[in-house]
Amino acid sequence: MRLDEFQNFIDEQDALFRKVKDTNQTERERVLARAVKLAEEFGELSNEVLAFVGDQRKDKLTEHSPQTLKDEFADVLIVTFLLAKAMDVDVMATLDHKIQKIREKHNKQL
Q1: How many separate domains does the chain show?
Q2: Mapping DSSP to helix (H, G, I), strand (E, B) and coil, where does residue 1 land?
Q3: Burial 63-101 (b: 16+ CB within 10 A, else e)
Q4: Any idea what the CATH number is for the domain that residue 53 is in?
Q5: pTM score, whole prediction
Q6: How far is 62 from 70, CA to CA, in rounded Å?
């Protein structure tokens, strides 16, 4: 999948959520809900990482697989982009800016 296709998916999901979720939800509430959802998804990814390295409880290992680990990475990215959209953050422009700063910093260190 190309990044523009992914962004189209995010736009579609955002429109769908706005249509089917609580229509009385303010933008502030939407941002907070998405931030909490991101924390939830990151927790699920953390569980998968623990399972991957063998440090997860035995009773949680039955649901772990290479695919569930991949799925949790995808969930974190999707929710991150949805949160960025809710906060009017252009992720690609922001990444370009940050990558440039990192490169400049690393070049000075090297």
Answers
A1: 1
A2: coil
A3: eeeeeeeeebeebbebbbbbbbbbeeeebeeeeeeeeee
A4: 1.10.287.1080
A5: 0.85
A6: 16
| Residue matched to tokens 């909490």 | 36
Query: What is the residue range of 83's domain?
Result: 3-109
Between the alpha carbon of residue 102 and those of residues 51, 78, 94, 96, 109, the distances in Å are: 31, 24, 12, 10, 11
- pLDDT tens, the chain, 110 aa long: 898 899 999 999 999 988 887 678 888 999 999 999 999 999 999 999 999 988 877 777 777 888 999 999 999 999 999 999 999 999 999 999 999 999 998 888 77
